[in-house]
Amino acid sequence: MKRQIRRNWDLYVLLLPVVAFFIVFEYVPMYGVQIAFKNFIATKGIWGSPWVGLHHFERFFESYYFWRLIKNTLGIGLYQLLVGFPAPILLALLINEVRSRKFSRFVQTVTYAPHFLSTVVLVGLLLIFLSPESGLVNLVITWLGGEPIRFMTEPSWFKSVYVLSGVWQQMGWSSIIYLAALTAIDPQLHEAARVDGASRWQRIWHINLPGIMPTITILLILNMGSLLSVGFEKVYLMQNSLNMTASDVISTHVYRKGIVDGQYSYSAAVGLFNNVINFILLIVVNRVARKMNDTSLW
Amino acid sequence: MVNQSLGDKLFGWVVYALLALICVIVLYPLIFVLVASFSSPGAVMRGEVWLWPKDMTWIGYKKIFQNAEILTGYANTLLYTVIGTAINLLLSIAAAYPLSRKDLYGRNVISGMMVLTMFFSGGMVPTYLLIKDLGMLNSMWALILPGAISVYNVLIMRTFFQNFIPQEMQEAAAMDGCSNIGTLVRIVLPLSMPIIAVMILFYSVGHWNAYFSALMYLTDREKYPLQLILREILIQGQMQEMQGVGDNVLAETVMQSEAIKYAVVIVANLPVLLLYPFLQKYFAKGVMIGAVKG
Fold it and tell me: Where is the protein situated, by its record's location annotation (chain B) (predicted)?
């Protein structure tokens, strides 16, 4: 062991800045999370501020915003899971059925592209296309004889716009991992099934889908683990005073209360609550998955 | 090819039709923006532009090059992206290579310490306070250092080093008296260009598109990256107009932004659009190597 360490000393030198990074930028903030249980006073610092126990958590649970935040965050997360999660799986199964190399390459190139647009540009595009006066979507709706819909300010539309634009942007990119899993399926299985007279639909259902099940399970676990960490950056950009009842989520609440208003301890408590719930969800789902079909993260 | 049944043939056509529809839905908004950027703002607002520019004009692009804030933002973003990506790449290699070596004592402890941060973190407020204490508020480093290593990318890289660089070559180099770092620089890295290209793409797109850390940490407008300027042009003006709180000054910015918003989307995404076809063969590979691990 000692010889091993001595021989690889330069590898440890290489790791030194890496370990320093994780300590400073990941573990120091984790240690700093204790301000959630304190009353942070800037002049006294994190260490010197007085303990207040669960005071900030109680304040959050009793606040007017609590149920609204839970409802919105969970609602968006579940909608995302129900619609956003299966979309790339379907796309990958479809692309896998294409015989023409060229067409398959074309579809992939096109559907991956929106992944590289920034959140700011994506929300900008939403505003352009969904505008009640000049947006293309509403032009089509009025042309078909309907009334223009105020997608970006009507609270009841918020979740759908958020999730469906996410599908538009990420469906292609997220399908890559399933496509990789599909190419790993033994072609002999298909050959045998074809000889036995199985139709293409049956082969997808009985060979391809079971073949990528482990991948689906792993990604489902990861997705469940972030059920409550709804993409902050996009929600924040889509928010406005008119849709706030539907668009206020835990992470944007933390930003407003903490960074903007300077209530550090209170918002650290809200953020910690969110993190803990996510962590518990991840562990529970992982355990369920391991029991049910032997696939799990650890 | 075996003779296909009628059902299978029909099925094939449905697959093609669905995929074609998906391509149209994904592609059309992008084409529309490109076309609209060359059309007169009035024609776009009246809904007369569909697939071909109407009253061709360069006015949007001209206005961008007269707008000092957009140009500074562009320069800032370039700077943050180049420096940020360089640091990302160096640190990721420094993390991934030692951890790819099975003879490294303690690699599991260090890996574990890294992976834990994927699932649990201090959160926004403690991180903000840390940046404040380090005196990095309103500086470029606040945008670059906190996210300097992505654990996910390190895992992809480590998997690549483990599975695609022949172990015997590294052992032979060590036998010939090559130090570990020498092996890394002379043997491993030259063989790892595909994965390095992927990392450059992932990290640089991340920096190019980031807006939130800039919103949180920067106060000087001269330091704003492009995305924050874009946010004002594309989102804030429109939002205020929709909420009916706009005043006269704002009405003017809205008209101004109407003329440039399409062109600005094109200009902002130009580097990515130019790099995309170039790097396309590499980047899907990167995701797939990540999948091998899973």
Answer: Cell membrane
Nearest-by-CA chain B residue for A282? B119
Chain A residues in contact with B124 (beta carbon < 8 A): 251, 254-255, 258-259, 267, 271
Q: What is the ipTM of this complex?
A: 0.89
Distances in Å between the Cα of B170 and the Cα atoms of A10, B93, B178 are 15, 16, 9
Amino acid in position B60: G
- For residue B91, give the nearest of A17, A123, A254 by CB distance: A17
Q: Is the pLDDT of residue A285 over 70?
A: yes
Q: How far is B18 from chain A (nearest CA, A)?
A: 8
- Asked if residue A48 lies in contact with residue A40, where contact means CB atoms within 8 angstroms, the answer is no
Q: DSSP per residue over B152-195, as a string?
A: HHHHHHHHHHHHHS-HHHHHHHHHTT--HHHHIIIIIHHHTHHH
Confidence of residue B294 (pLDDT cuts 50, 70, 90): very low
Largest CA distance in chain A: 80
Partners of residue A51 on adjacent β-strands: A38
Q: Determine contact: A215 vs chain B, CB below 8 A.
A: yes
Q: Which residue on chain A is closest to B284 by alpha carbon?
A: A176
Spacing of C-alpha A197 from chain mean position: 41
- B137 touches A at CB < 8 Å: no
